[in-house]
Design brief:
This protein has helices at 8-22, 28-35, 39-57, 78-89, 92-102, 108-115, 119-133, 154-167, 181-191, 199-217, 227-233, 241-248, 256-273, 280-291, 297-312, 318-337, 343-349, 362-374, 389-408, 421-434, 475-492, and strands at residues 62-63, 71-72, 139-142, 148-151, 412-417, 440-442, 451-454, 465-468. By secondary structure, the protein is mostly helical. Helix 20 (421-434) links the parallel strand 5 (412-417) and strand 6. Keywords: Transcription, Transcription regulation. Residues 81-164 form the Mga helix-turn-helix domain.
Length: 495
Amino acid sequence: MLINFLSKKKQRQLAILQSLFTNTTNGFPYLVKEFDITEVQLTHDIEDINKTVQTIAHQKLVDTSNKHNYTVNIDDIHLYQQLEFHYLNDSLTFQICSEIITHRHLPFNNLCDKLAISTSHCYRVLKQLNSILDQFNIVITIDQHTVPVFTGNEINIRVFIFSFVKYCFPRTNWPFPTISRAETISDFNLLSPNNKLAPSFAEEITLLLAVMKIRLSKSYFAEPMSEYVQTLLQKFVVSDYNTFKSLFFQKKMTDNNIIKVEFFYLNFFAHLLLPNLIEENHAISLGTIISHSHLSADIFVNKLTAKWQERFNLDLASDDLAKVKYFCLIFYVLAFHIHLNIIEILKSDATFLNDKRTINTAAMHDIRSFLTTTLPTIGHNNPCRDLPQDFAIDYFSNLFFFSTQTYKQQQVTIYMHFADYSVREFLKTKLKTIYTPLAVKTVDNINTADIILTDTFDIIVPNKKCIVIRNVFNPQELQTMLTAIDNSLFLSAKR
């Protein structure tokens, strides 16, 4: 998402840096050819990069002393993310979006004054912003009070806001000036006093609560839902309704239907962030409800799980098989039957769904092949019927793999040995953006690790997979690492 808010020029400059870090001695002619730009443009881009990095970090990033051999120091890779966020904060599209999201009431003219831009310029930027929002099926319009507001399905709006504040703000920055971070953390502790969460999980739940609070403060509520949908969603409830009501709704709010809808959605999205919270009895009872409904998804699940067992030799008892089936079915029905645009949040936060990346294993290809012939036969009630077929197949291939792994709750442990501490920290951050701690964990003891990542060929440990990474910006080396982790996660499901 972050890259969408940057100008083409800034995107190109970041791409040039990626190329330099991939091959730290890329020459001038090579870069001109790779990015199809003139020598003058490249010179200006490098000058801009160095000038900006000098401002934010007081050092030079790209060595241009030899015109035909530009170089960067691999030790400076941490500056890349700093430059990303600096460019982002300099983006007017980002600034306007941030102001609209984080303030309760900001009239259009006040927005223009605050950013010191003309109204015509602001309208042009809003048009650019709406092109980004199009993928979420929402839009920003000016209401009767001349306040820029989000228009569209309320859940879609919250999905976008959550993704925005999660990926476009540094972890150390709290994005909501009108919402107390400490109070929001306290709210979560009151809602779920028995949940002991890792800091990364607690942070995401806190952001989720803050997004809900700021939307409620503007009197925007989720759309009403049918009794059938309520029956589905109530299986995900892990917090106390009365506590929720007292924390987030004033006494004058008497419409319990609105409060219930908000309560159900909050618990559901909490499960998307923390899928291990789904208890097996919830999965089984919910699956029973769905399997006897008008949906013909039970045909899909029965075929799919049988194929899954046959292909991967899973030894599942009947109860276990039901749980695996219903994990998949829960997300299948809820994602599309209640018409939520939750694809982005699932891709971003579920264990194996990060951006557009898919698991690259023979197993996944087999599932995808099976789904290619299965999805079209589900029937006229197929929730995927309005989606591009390739997208639907990829989506459910990943979901089914994810649901099985979540049930098994296996974890791959990684030990890192690098001479440069910053490389280790960079890779740890990289892994956190792709996997949750439920799936991948870094450890300090080499003997307890499943995979060893290192920059030397000298480390040999019997029965341990060792991956040598000399350049963290080399796509091939990174893909080797990710494939090894993916395969280890998949194989763990057979233990």
